[in-house]
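Below is how a single chain appears once it has passed through the pipeline. First comes the sequence as given, then the structure the pipeline wrote out for it. We keep one example in the README because the format questions we get most often are answered faster by looking than by reading.
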Amino acid sequence: MFNENDIDQAMNHINQSVQHLSQTIDDFKDFIKKNKVKENFLLENTFNKTFQLITAQFKNANIIIEKSIQNIALYGMQRELIQVFINILNNARDELVKQNISLKFISIHAITKNDKIEITILDNAGGISPEHTDKIFESHFTTKQDDKGKVSSSLIY
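Resulting structure:
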């Protein structure tokens, strides 16, 4: 037996979920638009857009994301930077899930240091093998099986 308050709360929750899903669809539509024009944007907003696109996958895998991101102004191709972040974070997620780690953790820090932007993304999945570190920014490099590999973007700021 439900009372009126329970029904109102359930309807509010459903409405919030629908609004969130609608916003996610809009975010994906905006993301896939081909925009090769450089623009001014803020790094913190770029990470927020990245998280909006991938957050459900990380919640479902019980991955904790800790972040400390300075709101740094940039000029460049924001959508391509989002794609780089998605690739890096999805690779970390895949490795954390593959290793079946009980406490899955990703830490993201972005600061300005010596007039450069330093972005550090760490996870507790064991890191990148030293034999691969020289190759990780090559556009078609992957350590995954042929059917699981992803093509990455390269981006220079």
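The chain has a mean pLDDT of 82.

See the next section for the split statistics.
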